[in-house]
Amino acid sequence: MMSRVPDSDRTNPLFAGHGPGYARTMTTTTGRADKSTAELVHDLTEQVSRLARDEVALATRELKNKARHAGLGAAIAGAGGVFAFYGGAVLVAACVLALALVLPAWAAALIIAGVLFVIAGVAVLVARKQLKEGTPPIPAEAIESAKEDIQAVKEARR
């Protein structure tokens, strides 16, 4: 015997993110002995299919959320970078002007440019090393949830 989940339970966080009709498919049985083997296999197929769809949906939501945060963070960092660039340009000009007090202006500008190119080269080498060590983003929560589901199924079979 199967019972339908009341419509009022559809607002339950358990059903959050699931499509319409998800709450209707959540059923309980009063006696397993009442079902035939074919019905049990059919139910198992439906439940495994629903579980797989839910895991994919969880992974999709998780990656979209991470991408949204990464995009926002990149935009804010870009805006900060523009202001830092202008501030750095003013500091470079100040360094050239200060060095021009003891050297000709052209020599002061060349010295400061050389120092800046050395700093840029070191930064590129460090960035290259960090980029090589980076790992691609993965939906860690969804993978962990799927592993737990697989473990629960294995334990239930025993």
From TrEMBL:
Region Disordered: start-end pairs: 1-28
Highest taxon in the source lineage: Bacteria
Compositional bias segments (type: Basic and acidic residues): 1-10
Pfam families, A to Z: Phage_holin_3_6
Key words of the record: Membrane, Transmembrane, Transmembrane helix
Residue stretches spanning the membrane: 71-99, 105-127
The name this protein goes by in its record: Putative superfamily III holin-X
Species per Swiss-Prot/TrEMBL record: Actinophytocola oryzae
Lineage: Bacteria, Bacillati, Actinomycetota, Actinomycetes, Pseudonocardiales
